[in-house]
Amino acid sequence: MDLRFDEADEAFRREVACWLATALTGEFAELVDAGGPGREHEHLQARKAWERRLGRDGWIGLGWPEADGGRGLSWERQVIFHEECARAGAPGRVGHIGEQLLGPTLLMFGTAEQKARFLPGILDGTRLWCQGYSEPGAGSDLAAVRTRAELRGGEWHVDGQKVWTSLATEADWCFVLARTEPGSLRHRGLSCLLVPMDQPGVDVRPIVQLTGTSEFNEVFFDDARAARDDVVGAPGEGWKVAMGTLAVERGVSTFGQQMGFAREFERVLAAARATGAADDPVLAERLLDSWMQLQVLRYTAVMTLGAPAGSTPGTEANVAKLMWAPWHRRLGELAVDVLGAAGTVAAGPGVDELTPAQRLHLFTRADTIYGGSDEVQRTVIAQRMLGLPRGPA
């Protein structure tokens, strides 16, 4: 896909930039560059208010069909929005899981009643979601899900554990992949349930990370309830729904991620120039290599835009994950290395006493694990793309 912007697109860019310049002032001025990787704890209440401001002014659901409350904008204009948000330092989103994952999933598989009930809260920024897929024994191997749900008395009764659940402490709802057919194995017998978080039987426990923050959480379901009709797709079609979610997970939102990466690289480059590290031949080569790989990441993101919603995912997402995760981890290492010995010393033991470079370095250690580990990505690519035989179990 050759991403080009015409004059109308550039006029839209000016509209977005103007809105951001006005909105990121006053009560939201403190949010510039806040809430990035390893910094989800920053200004949380203000970022929730920012979510509502986005919804009020029509900046959520840009690519959703107009019939479902969106604006029906092209991929190009969605990309422009992400570019300008990154350029303006717009804060990390707290509603992205609803907008980028659950919303598109409902657009593909949800009933008319489900869309009418759940989409408006996402669009106006008032209802937050988390994703209940990974488990202690089913992280990269999603088909090994053991959380179970049984339909009794007109309700689903959910029991099990999820892990690495982003923003579960703030979410109003969770879309949970659970095994609803007793005795089923692997991809069969799974269902995607919409489970309210504010109820007895849901216990959220934050996981403290290397950065000292807790973006990720464990979620325990002990006879938690979901309404009979709050199943996305038919019962037993959970694997199909989950694959649909993963297919859209790395669409335009991934391009926004690339814009964030570019901004991080620019900071590392500026630090290298300020400290003189850019004059070191070895560090200069690492900076050049990082920049070149960033261009490849951007090109890869552009090439994946425009895939039909709900189409069966191939290995493109696996290749992309295997490219950006180790790159981002190396960028975190480089961010500290260009600072020299001073980069290894924190100002103090508190969460807020890490420098941005140190926080980036620590947080990105997990990049090659969450969202499917590098080892699993290589296995998927080897088997599905190259047709190589399965290794020994």
Task: Give the helices and strands, then pairings.
Layout lengths: L6 H17 L20 H13 L18 H14 L7 H14 L2 H12 L5 E4 L15 E5 L2 E8 L10 E7 L10 E7 L5 E5 L10 E11 L3 E2 L5 H12 L2 H24 L5 H24 L11 H22 L18 H8 L10 H12 L8
Parallel strand pairs: 1-4
Antiparallel strand pairs: 2-3, 3-7, 4-5, 5-8, 6-7
InterPro entries: Acyl-CoA_Oxase/DH_mid-dom, Acyl-CoA_Oxase/DH_mid-dom_sf, AcylCo_DH-like_C, AcylCo_DH/oxidase_C, AcylCoA_DH/ox_N, AcylCoA_DH/ox_N_sf, AcylCoA_DH/oxidase_NM_dom_sf, Mycobact_Acyl-CoA_DH
Protein name: Acyl-CoA dehydrogenase family protein
Cofactor: FAD
CATH topology of the largest domain: Butyryl-CoA Dehydrogenase, subunit A, domain 3
Instruction: Describe the largest sheet.
Output: 4 strands, mixed
CATH architecture of the largest domain: Up-down Bundle
Taking all Cα atoms into account, the compactness measure Rg is 21 Å
Number of helices: 11
Provide a compact summary of the structure:
This protein is an alpha+beta fold and 393 residues long.
Description:
Its cofactor is FAD. Residues 9-125 form the Acyl-CoA dehydrogenase/oxidase N-terminal domain. Keywords: FAD, Flavoprotein, Oxidoreductase. The protein is α+β, with helices and mostly antiparallel strands and 393 residues long. The chain folds into three domains: 7-94, Butyryl-Coa Dehydrogenase, subunit A, domain 1 (Orthogonal Bundle); 129-238, Butyryl-CoA Dehydrogenase, subunit A, domain 2 (Beta Barrel); 250-385, Butyryl-CoA Dehydrogenase, subunit A, domain 3, CATH 1.20.140.10. The protein is built from eleven helices and eight strands. The protein has helices spanning 7-23, 44-56, 75-88, 96-109, 112-123, 238-249, 252-275, 281-304, 316-337, 356-363, 374-385; strands spanning 129-132, 148-152, 155-162, 173-179, 190-196, 202-206, 217-227, 231-232. It has a four-stranded mixed sheet with strand order 1-4-5-8. Strands 2-3-7-6 form a four-stranded antiparallel sheet, with no helix packed on it. Helix 8 (281-304) packs antiparallel against helix 9. The longest helix has 24 residues, at 252-275. The two termini are 39 Å apart. Mean pLDDT is 87; it is low at 307-313.
